[in-house]
Amino acid sequence: MADLGFGQPRDGVMQMAYIVEDIRASIAYWTEELHVGPWFLLDSFTGRDPVYRGEPSRAEVSIAMAFAGHMNIELIQPKDDHPSVYRETLEQRGYGFHHFGLCTDDIDTAIADLEAKGLTLAFRAGVGSGGDVAYMDGGPGKPGMTELIEYTPGMDAGFTAMWRASRDWDGTDPVRPFGARPAAGDAG
Questions:
Q1: Which of 5, 82, 92, 163 has the smallest number of Cβ neighbours within 10 A?
Q2: Which InterPro entries match (predicted)?
């Protein structure tokens, strides 16, 4: 199976995600202390037709993504107290690591495969790249959830554009709108 455009194996871990209290303060930490950036910020995300543990979801989050090498880093700030995969993790463990992201060509089959291994579908929603994401809960013995990220050409192109922006990034424009094209000074 071919690698994704940003160099991660198409059937491997492509993302690590963290729940944060203040997304802008977290971006500043990752940028200033760890030299990770630029960050692509989406101030409001709910997903298309979101379902949390079998019920329609109203939870809203801010998300920011950047690359550390070939690994996508996602920061997630809950914006309300509605039930969600983020809120339940906050209540159980507090802020910090939330999930590993895995790319999948067939999200329905991947969900069924993980359910056969004892994981539970906790959240599913459509995303702007045309596919779906699904969070699988392995229970309290796991370090976090597993997010299945459905492969589409738009998904690969979006992540690859963010990765290209990170190559040889010189620290300018550390926060950019989600979906923005790389700046003129970014490697491509």
A1: 92
A2: Glyas_Bleomycin-R_OHBP_Dase
How far separated are the first and last CA of the chain, in Å rounded?
A: 24
Count: domains in the chain: 1
pLDDT in tens, 58-93: 999 999 999 999 999 999 999 999 999 999 999 999
Write the single-letter amino acid at 34.
L
User: Is 4 inside a domain boundary?
Assistant: no
- Convert 144-162 into a string of H (helix), E (strand) and C (coil): CEEEEEECCHHHHHHHHHH
* Single-letter code of the amino acid located at 65: M
Closest listed residue to residue 40, CA positions, set 187, 165, 135, 132: 165
Between β-strands 71-78 and 13-19, what pairing exists: parallel, antiparallel or unpaired?
A: parallel
Q: Give a yes or no: residue 84 inside a domain.
A: yes
Q: Nearest 5°: CA angle at 95, between 90 and 99?
A: 80
- What CATH number did the domain enclosing 30 receive? 3.10.180.10
Any domain includes 91:
yes
Average pLDDT over residues 115-135: 96
Domain of residue 42 covers 13-171
Its pTM stands at 0.94
